[in-house]
């Protein structure tokens, strides 16, 4: 049995980058919602922060849906 170490390292690298990117996007979404809440308490609307947070969550959902599509198809 031969293992293609280059392919294994490539899969590991891509998985690591995608995982860090997804966690980063989700973190930005949570931070945006927190920023929106603090802006609302001080009298502002926080619409830009809320919109950015929802965009981050939408990108996370799209990435997860694409991953599920790749597994199923």
Give a quick set of tags describing it.
73 residues; mainly alpha; 2 helices; 86% helix; elongated
- Mean pLDDT comes to 93
> Helical amount among residues, as a percent range?
over 70%
Q: What is the C-alpha radius of gyration, as a whole number of Å?
A: 18 Å
Helix count equals: 2
| Largest sheet descriptor | none
The separation of the N and C termini measures: 28 Å
Tell me the overall shape.
elongated
Give the H and E element order.
HH
Low-confidence stretches: none
Write a structural description.
The protein is an all-alpha fold and 73 residues long. It contains 2 helices and no strands. Helix 1 packs antiparallel against helix 2. The longest helix has 37 residues. It is elongated, with a radius of gyration of 18 Å.
Quick synopsis:
This protein is an all-alpha fold and 73 residues long. It has helices spanning 5-41, 47-72.
Secondary structure blueprint with pairings:
Layout: H1 5-41, H2 47-72
Helix pairs in contact: 1-2
Protein name: Secreted protein
Keywords: Membrane, Transmembrane, Transmembrane helix
Transmembrane segments: 6-30, 51-72
